[in-house]
Amino acid sequence: MSVFSNRLKEARTRAGLSQERLGVLAGIDEMSSSARMNQYEKARHEPDFTMVERIAKALNVPESYFYAAEDEAAWLLATFHRLPRSERDRVMQFAREVAGESDVVPWPSIAMLHFSQCDGFGQI
Fold first, then answer.
1. pTM given for the model
2. Which is deepest, 31, 72, 86, 95, by most CB within 10 Å?
3. Interatomic CA distance for residues 60 and 79, integer angstroms
4. pLDDT tens by residue, 70-94
5. Average of pLDDT values for 25-46?
6. In this predicted model, which residue has the larger pLDDT, 1 or 107?
7. In the predicted model, what is the mean pLDDT of the chain?
8. Rounded to whole angstroms, how far apart are CA atoms 4 and 47?
């Protein structure tokens, strides 16, 4: 099975949802939702990213959760996603300190700085 299919089944069962209910919450027609979710969980088909976004929203996990190969990384992604903004900031500050990067500019600021200096195609 693929990482995606394993993570999907894991998140769905933890949420206490049937395949049909998850499919409906993700916007799939009720008549085919169970079959589609089953195909995703059995790795017979993989959804496009728009569907992954809808599934992630229904399960309250980030899209990246479905592609995390390591269990610890998947848990961190899902847990971090569910934290309020103030707690996320605390976790980020702690992680920077542990990594010895406490004086480094936060990631979003670096991305915005780069984007504001380029022509929209990555060229400065």
1. 0.79
2. 95
3. 10
4. 999 999 999 999 999 999 999 999 9
5. 96
6. 1
7. 87
8. 10
CA distance 17 to 43: 19
With contact defined as beta carbons under 8 Å apart, do 26 and 58 qualify? yes
Residue whose structure tokens are 């499919």: 23
What interhelical angle do 3-15 and 33-41 show, nearest 10? 130
**Residue 55: both structure tokens together:** 């599934």
Is the pLDDT confidence value at 60 over 80? Answer: yes
Q: What are phi and psi of 53, to 5 degrees?
A: -60, -45
d(CA 79, CA 118): 34
Q: At what angle do helices 3-15 and 49-59 cross, to 10 degrees?
A: 30
Q: Distance (Å, rounded) from C-alpha 77 to C-alpha 62?
A: 7
Is 67 within 8 Å of 3 (Cβ atoms)?
yes
Is the pLDDT at 55 greater than 50? The verdict is yes
Please report where in the chains the tokens 């670096």 appear, as a residue: 110
Which stretches within 3-124 are classed as H helix?
3-15, 19-25, 33-41, 49-59, 71-82, 85-98, 107-117
Q: Which of 39, 65, 37 is nearest to 53 (CA)?
A: 65
